[in-house]
């Protein structure tokens, strides 16, 4: 049997080393794996019988229950935002920081970024992993970093123009905000950007094309999450056919979100990640709630690293309206098919006069026939989603823009 890029002997060796010693180092996993004979794990099938690690487990371990090394080995902590509950605190050793920078440097190299570039880093600094991750990877390849962080648009453009930034690092929401502002101010000829490294949230093809066209750059999706180092654990290449991930640092599984069983290669499911080298807070079979699939076959770029598809959404983005499951990604796909519709939308769900009502507000291009695009959205939602919706077309710029992630669904029923 030929070696699969998604399950390699080197990964198996690293995984066996991880699980066979993890209860000695991690009180969290000592408790979680109590009663399990970890020495009996010999292959992938044994490993896939281990219980999943859930986000709720990590929250319950607040503040430092995940720490698997002595205090003197911890050089930094990062944290999730905690906007949906207790934050998750992740300790990092010096080796963790070095490994993360190495993965991020690979991302920049995959995107064709070199030490001649000037990298404009807009994601936030501090407990959030983004800003420091983008900076460390850029420093590792020897590029000039402009660590400006988010906000203050006037200052963003002054630095961008005066320092001749060539690479923009941002969330898709903030990249769109900057792109629209550049067009509105008429300063496109003074901007020297050539690449955009975009992460933190799912974005539609329509949004991608708007940002790329208005900034005049090639865009790359970068992937990561706070619990697993941060951004930089995977990125798309020039061919835009999925994201390569660093399988010498990480083991990926894709499971059926309901049964927990592996899905056939190439089918969509929930991504589960095991960290093969992480010291400060190793994770075994961590459910990310991100929906994607393995991309089979060789990539035209020639990279030996395997690929997952773009993130299609999250299992916890799901809402149920009149018994029908709705994902923001599906609204994205529908809008992409409608001539005259732009990329930005919001879904409002209310309970009015004894029934659920789903309103879709969406931006339209100048000159679009509003009644026509509303009728088409109503038709496609009924056909594709199985729901009657209330469509409301608005002008470009009417929906709010964000420096971080954009909220798409507002469930006002509870």
How are the SSEs ordered, and which strands pair?
Elements: H1 9-25, H2 27-32, H3 44-47, H4 55-60, E1 74-79, E2 89-93, H5 94-110, E3 118-121, H6 130-141, E4 144-146, H7 153-162, E5 167-171, H8 172-185, E6 195-199, H9 205-215, E7 218-225, E8 230-236, E9 243-245, E10 250-255, E11 269-275, E12 286-292, E13 294-295, E14 307-308, E15 313-314, E16 319-321, E17 324-326, H10 328-336, E18 341-352, E19 355-364, H11 370-385, E20 390-395, E21 409-411
Parallel strand pairs: 3-4, 3-5, 5-6, 6-7, 18-21, 19-20
Antiparallel strand pairs: 1-2, 7-8, 8-9, 9-14, 10-11, 11-12, 12-15, 13-14, 16-17, 18-19
Helix pairs in contact: 5-6, 8-9, 10-11
Number of helices: 11
CATH topology of the largest domain: Rossmann fold
The gross shape turns out to be: globular
Low-pLDDT parts are none
Total number of domains: 2
Estimated share of beta-strand residues: 25-35%
Structural class: alpha/beta
CATH superfamily of the largest domain: ANL, N-terminal domain
CATH architecture call of the largest domain: 3-Layer(aba) Sandwich
Give the % helix: 25-40%
End-to-end separation in angstroms reads 53 Å
Overall average pLDDT: 91
Instruction: Please count the beta strands (DSSP E, at least 2 residues each).
Output: 21
- Major β-sheet, in short? 9 strands, mixed
Strand order of the largest sheet: 4-3-5-6-7-8-9-14-13
Q: Rounded to an integer, what's the Rg over CA atoms?
A: 22 Å
**Which CATH C-level class of the largest domain is it?**
Alpha Beta
């Amino acid at each position: 049997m030929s070696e699969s890029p998604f399950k390699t002997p080197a990964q198996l060796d690293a995984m066996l080393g991880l699980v066979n010693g993890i209860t000695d180092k991690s009180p969290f996993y000592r408790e979680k794996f109590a009663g399990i004979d970890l020495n009996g794990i010999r292959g992938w099938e044994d490993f896939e019988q281990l219980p999943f690690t859930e986000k709720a487990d990590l929250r319950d371990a607040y503040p430092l229950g995940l720490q698997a090394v002595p205090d003197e080995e911890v050089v930094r902590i990062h944290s999730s935002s905690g906007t949906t509950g207790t934050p998750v605190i992740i300790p990092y050793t010096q080796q963790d920081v070095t490994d993360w920078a190495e993965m991020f440097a690979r991302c920049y190299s995959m995107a064709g970024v070199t030490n001649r570039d000037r990298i404009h880093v807009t994601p936030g600094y501090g407990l959030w992993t983004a800003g420091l991750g983008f900076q460390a990877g850029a420093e590792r390849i020897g590029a000039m970093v402009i660590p400006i962080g988010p906000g203050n648009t006037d200052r963003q453009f002054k630095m961008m123009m005066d320092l001749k930034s060539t690479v923009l690092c941002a969330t898709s929401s903030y990249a769109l905000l900057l792109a629209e502002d550049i067009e509105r101010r008429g300063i496109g000829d003074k901007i020297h950007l050539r690449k955009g490294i975009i992460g933190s949230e799912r974005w539609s093809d329509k949004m991608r094309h708007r940002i790329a066209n208005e900034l005049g750059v090639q865009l790359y999706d970068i992937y990561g999450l706070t619990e697993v180092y941060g951004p930089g654990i995977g990125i798309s290449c020039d061919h835009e056919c999925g994201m390569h991930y660093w399988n010498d640092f990480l083991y990926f599984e894709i499971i059926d979100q309901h049964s927990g069983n592996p899905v056939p290669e190439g089918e969509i499911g929930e991504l589960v990640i095991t960290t093969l080298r992480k010291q400060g807070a190793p994770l075994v079979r961590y459910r990310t709630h991100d929906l994607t699939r393995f991309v089979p076959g060789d990539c035209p770029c020639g990279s030996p690293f395997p690929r997952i598809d773009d993130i299609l959404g999250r299992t916890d983005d799901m809402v149920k309206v009149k018994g029908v499951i709705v994902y923001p990604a599906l609204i994205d796909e529908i809008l992409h098919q409608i001539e005259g519709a732009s990329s930005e939308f919001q879904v409002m769900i209310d309970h009015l006069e004894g029934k659920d009502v789903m309103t879709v507000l969406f931006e339209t291009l100048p000159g679009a026939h509003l009644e026509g695009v509303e009728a088409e959205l109503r038709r496609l939602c009924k056909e594709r989603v199985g729901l009657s919706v209330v469509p409301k077309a608005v002008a470009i710029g009417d929906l709010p823009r964000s420096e971080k992630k954009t909220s798409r669904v507002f469930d006002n029923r509870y």
